[in-house]
Design goal:
- It comes from Reticulibacter mediterranei.
- With 653 residues, the protein is of the alpha+beta class.
- The strands form four sheets. A six-stranded antiparallel sheet has the order 2-3-1-9-8-10.
- It has 26 helices and 19 strands.
- A hairpin with a 4-residue loop joins strand 6 and strand 7.
- 41% of the residues lie in helices and 15% in strands.
- The chain has four domains: 201 residues, Glutamine Phosphoribosylpyrophosphate, subunit 1, domain 1 (4-Layer Sandwich), CATH 3.60.20.10; 199 residues, Rossmann fold (3-Layer(aba) Sandwich), CATH 3.40.50.620; 107 residues, no CATH class; 64 residues, no CATH class.
């Protein structure tokens, strides 16, 4: 795992790239503390910092070139099937000098051009400088496991693994995108291709971009650089087979996906929550691996937020080398640490336990497998069941009665438990009153249009009743008219890369830990998308086929346990441990000076939550995380995290 960056002068003229590359690399050093390197030529510069996983010798150093130095690569991630590609490329005449997957990417590009992407099974973000074409080719893996940001002003082009590296460039403005801010408030994250800054973009998952140094670009248009897709998932059910046939294929695919992710020259382990996804990874790792699995779990003192009992069951069942830590963190310090690594506003509170389990795991291993994407592939989230239940219980009621029942949500008192009965009913009724095509989207949002109008000094142009038209477009792109297919497609294309994978990448790389997700293998994704919906969600029971496939391997109490999720008691922390920080971050004078949020409305939310009259935890957590981000990154001057002040020398890129 690594951090990459690059600069281009689009007219091809020479410039002093290395000082800027060093600044960009320095702020990503946590992604790759083992090595760094630079390549500079006329009009182009590449930078790299390395977390050594494959081929620990100097032969794995980057930037890496082909034999004649005409093609150069910087690469973040892993190509799991690289050993299978080596003999294919050798037969075509390519010579290898290392045992790294990086060199495979170079030769695959030489052999197949941009079509090389179809040959890779892995997680990656890479850039290839082709001096023969005077172009740079950048690409991101199919599911968006590894990040890639880019910026251009028409004369220069820059890219990096993390947004903060682009902010190290004096030319990059810090203009807040109000559209991205609205997206953040609605979803708790900023979805691709936007970033929180108006002039910086994310390369979407499953896309590539090719830029010429003469100023032209493949797909260039008046609004910027247009990425091109190279992979898509379609929910199109194939010819029906028996359940047993589906079970056998799933077991085969999942076992192969786990085996691919055990290739490593450094120690590895597994995040074990005790849920069916991570437990399945442990089970299959025990079967295909050659060593006793190392498993890692964390817990909290609050019982409703603790899954350790289930994790212990799995660890004992498979005799793993199990490591457990009961966390009593200094909440204030933990939140500040996590905020330092979030260079975009991000309000999924599970980032905190993800950081903690990554920190614990990194003390023992360099690579960790996890169960991410199992919920998206096999319909494990509550909202899939909620919409199914709504379709069975409420959608056929007359509009007046349905709206009356749903209005009861505002009268249900909040619960201190993470998933108390009252909280579940409130959330269900809050979205069930919408038209069926909007219910799934509402389940993932936390502000109504009237609330946003009260919150924002400059209210959004879009009203909640229409939601985000881009998400509605995604629903139509699924290739299916069935509600479950559409919901899962949206989550695979949006929620998975921009929330779940963003969180795991930033929090694991903060401690220089590589994470690998077997459920993210694109062969599994395509398999799940072609399943009959009833094999994903049977009645209101999710993950039906996965449970069938694992029923002879996992303990019964794991197969049939209720999903809890990976979270923290932040609604309680806001009233106690973080009370002073919350009141300071959202102080009226600070908000008035900032000019983004209406202070009186925010204060009403704070008072109602602290008094216990209402549960505004989601809203206040979003506002708090935005404020912590803003004080670090929104300033027009370079922030302290970027290795003090950037040299004020005036150098054109």
């Amino acid at each position: 795992m690594c951090g990459i960056c690059g600069l281009l002068q689009l007219d091809g003229s020479s410039f002093a790239a290395e000082p800027f590359l060093r600044e960009m690399t320095a702020v990503q050093k946590h992604r790759g503390p083992d090595d760094e390197g630079y390549f500079c030529a006329s009009g182009v510069g590449l930078g790299f910092c390395r977390l050594a996983i494959q081929d620990l010798t100097p032969a794995g150093h980057q930037p890496m070139s082909n034999e004649d130095g005409k093609v150069w690569l910087v690469f973040n991630g892993e190509v799991y099937n690289f050993r299978e590609l080596v003999p294919v490329l050798e037969q075509a005449g390519h010579k290898f000098r290392s045992r790294s997957d990086s060199e495979v990417i170079i030769h695959a590009y030489e052999q197949w051009g941009k079509d090389c992407l179809a040959h890779f099974n892995g997680m990656f973000a890479f850039a290839i400088w082709d001096s023969r074409k005077r172009s740079i080719f950048i690409a991101r893996d199919r599911l968006g496991v590894k990040p890639l940001y880019y910026w251009s002003d028409g004369s220069h082009f820059a890219f990096s693994s993390e947004l903060k590296a682009l902010l190290a460039l004096p030319q990059v403005p810090r203009q807040l995108s109000m559209q991205a801010l609205q997206s953040y408030l609605m979803y708790e994250y900023v979805p691709a291709p936007e970033s929180i800054f108006a002039d910086i973009q994310k390369l979407p998952a499953g896309h590539f971009l090719e830029v010429q140094l003469d100023g032209s670009a493949q797909g260039c248009h008046t609004l910027g650089w247009r990425p091109q897709p190279y992979w898509e998932v379609r929910f199109q059910e194939q010819a029906r087979r028996s359940v047993d046939e589906y079970v056998e294929e799933l077991k085969m695919l999942l076992k192969a996906a786990v085996a691919r992710r055990l290739i490593s020259d450094v120690p590895l382990g597994v995040f074990l929550s005790g849920g069916i996804d991570s437990s399945s990874v442990v089970a299959l790792m025990s079967e295909v691996g050659t060593e006793r699995p190392k498993t890692f779990s964390i817990g909290f003192e609050e019982k409703t937020f603790n899954e350790l009992d289930y994790a212990q069951v799995v660890a004992r069942h498979f005799d793993t080398d199990h490591h457990v830590e009961i966390l009593r963190p200094d909440v204030y310090d933990l939140l500040q640490t996590v905020a330092n690594f979030l260079d975009e506003p991000f309000a999924d509170a599970s980032a905190l336990p993800t950081y903690l389990v990554s920190h614990t795991t990194r003390q023992h291993v360099t690579v960790a497998l996890g169960g991410d994407a199992g919920d998206e592939l096999f319909a494990g989230y509550d909202w899939y069941r909620a919409q199914k239940l709504a379709s069975l219980s409420l959608d056929n009621l007359p509009d007046g009665i349905r709206q009356y029942v749903c209005a009861l949500a505002s009268h249900i008192p909040p619960s201190a438990q993470k998933k108390g009965f009252c909280n579940i009913i409130r959330r269900f009724l809050d979205g069930a009153g919408l038209p069926p095509q909007l219910q799934h989207l509402r389940w993932q949002t936390f502000w109504r249009s009237d609330e946003l109008e009260q919150l924002l000094v400059h209210p959004p142009f879009q009203h909640f009743s229409s939601l985000d038209p881009r998400l509605l477009k995604l629903l139509a792109m699924s290739g299916s008219t069935r509600p479950l297919d559409q919901q899962q497609y949206v989550d695979i294309k949006r929620y998975l890369p921009d929330d779940i994978l963003f969180k795991v990448d930033r929090m694991s790389m903060a401690v220089s830990l590589e994470t690998r997700g077997p459920f993210l293998d694109y062969t599994l994704v395509e398999f799940a998308a072609n399943l009959p919906p009833a094999l994903r969600l049977r009645g209101i029971t999710g993950k039906y086929l996965l449970k069938r496939a694992m029923q002879d391997m996992l303990p019964q109490q794991i197969l049939h346990r209720r999903k809890l999720g990976f979270n923290i008691p932040y609604k309680n922390w806001l009233r106690h441990e973080l009370r002073d920080l919350l009141q300071d971050a959202l102080a009226p004078m600070r908000l008035k000076q900032q000019g983004i949020f209406h202070a009186p409305y925010v204060q009403s939310l704070v008072h109602e939550h602290l008094s216990g009259r209402q549960d505004h935890a989601h809203k206040l957590w979003q506002l708090l995380m935005f404020q912590l981000w803003a004080e670090r990154y929104l300033s027009a001057s370079p922030v302290s995290l970027l290795r003090n002040e950037i040299d004020s020398r005036a150098v054109n890129l």
